[in-house]
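request received
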Amino acid sequence: MSKDYIIEQLKKQIENFETKTQTEKVGTVLEVGDGVAKVSGLSDVMASEMLEFPNGIYGVALNLEEGQIGAMILGAFEGIKEGDQVKSTGKILSIPVGENMIGRVINPLGQAIDGKGEIVSDKFYPIEKIAPGVITRQSVNQPVQTGIKAIDAMIPVGRGQRELIIGDRQTGKTAIAIDAIINQKGQDMICIYVAIGQKESKIARIVAELEKKGAMEYTTIVLAGASDPAAFSFVAPYSGCALGEYFMDKGKDVLVIYDDLSKHAWAYRQISLILKRPPGREAYPGDVFYLHSRLLERSAKLNKDFGGGSITALPIIETQAGDVSAYIPTNVISITDGQIYLESDLFYKGIRPALNVGLSVSRVGSAAQTKAMKKVAGKLRLDLAQFRELEAFAQFGSDLDENTRRQIERGRRTVEILKQDQYAPMLMENQVAILYALTNGFLDDVAVEKIRTWEADFQKYINSSAKEVLTLIAEKKELTEDVVAKLEKVIKDFKEVYQNGV
Amino acid sequence: MKITATQYAKSLYEVTREKSQSEIGVVTENFVKVLAKNRQAKLAVKIIKKFEELYNKENGIAEVEAISSRKLEADQIGQIEKFIKEKYSAREVLINNKIDENIKGGIILKIGDEIMDASVERQLRELKKSLVKL
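response:
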């Protein structure tokens, strides 16, 4: 390439360059502090309109007062000084959306932060949007397979449902969410993981794990890191939801995970206090309930006339010392359609996922389960409930009648079977097979401490030697008599081989 | 309820409207007394500013700050005046010419919180932005 050619090109570029002068509304920064700016002027700015600060930093108008507005700054606010010019943009805060967001890590403004190049998109979705109304919705009837036996069997999550994951720190809340993402492979789901105020190291680990499992092919991560301004943490879930809405409007099923909404509430509390909004209970502003309810209400299952897409939300709440009656947990519990309750006591006992089955519920219930799963799960719940009632007696051991003893033994095996390793989600048909074996007494003669190895070998066996039974369950999604007969034969065959082999 | 500067300015405008000069003297004196009685004399500066804005708006006066790199010629000022009169349907235009060599050429007009930036400096900045993007 010659020098002249380059110069010629440059000349052409400059010749074609045109600028338009237009009237702009401007204001002046009166004061800046802690990520919030007071701006005078800007007489006809809208609520939650985007503002442009110098150096291309954006802000959002939050408080409109007489003569001045309060705006949160989305970006580094160190460079902004008193007297700077602020332009209004006439646009409500929106983020670029598109298929090319999939597989990327973005910040809440839709900019790539994974170093894989800029994401170009011409479609924009507003961050705040009124949730779909009654006529557009349909009741939840299709399951989201999380791949976790305890959840899929007893606390089923449906497409379009909002299921809260709640528990203390270090109880495996994120692990459940990540497992659910990994299990969506081939299930025609788009996953969005919104990290709010999370450690960047944790996110790096999650991204690496998802990449290893091939789950990044259908996942977007929206990251507001712990070192980003509170405004980012505040906006992040809405951005993630806006991106989800784009896919939902295209008729796709979306799974959005908000990790976690307690940090979101903290960020909002910080911004509100700096904006001098009056504090209420636990110093949260008056509208924290609306903060979460308007976000979670945007998850929906649309009916056929509106494309039939869905957004399933898995919000996460971190409790302090198991206190579920604090302000934010109670709020979110009342908004969601059920909760998955994790307990540190169970976690340390080695029951992982540390699910408290008694306190966890799904209000959508069995409407979101396949018939096959429904059949085995009903018995499972009963077994566990009876076991929990009798567990206290089990401490004394001996003087128990045959029936009670059997129930306790069954309960112990059930607990063992519901244990599951991280990053090892299980397909629905495999779950049905093992749960069928459990609830129909095929495991009663296996020692409790050997249950897990037995299960692992059983899964290996059924995956290799009895694949056709699995495909039968997967296709029919029902346990008809001939399927049951085949399944029982496989289980019996395996037991014979296993007992003779070992 | 606290009375704001805007409210003071509005009432001052209303009591002084269509009054003779001597009357205005009396009215203004009373206004200042009320202000002192309410212990809000510190609002005076704001009230004056708001009053000016209100007066200009009611009387169709547009105050324009024109920033240019060299002093504007009389016919240029005339052109600006005509432009502003049309755009804002103002009856009277007050032009305050400021010289700023940093804008290199062209002109920037400021009316209230609106700004029209037709400076060479901005165009260069835009050019730079579009070249960097390519």
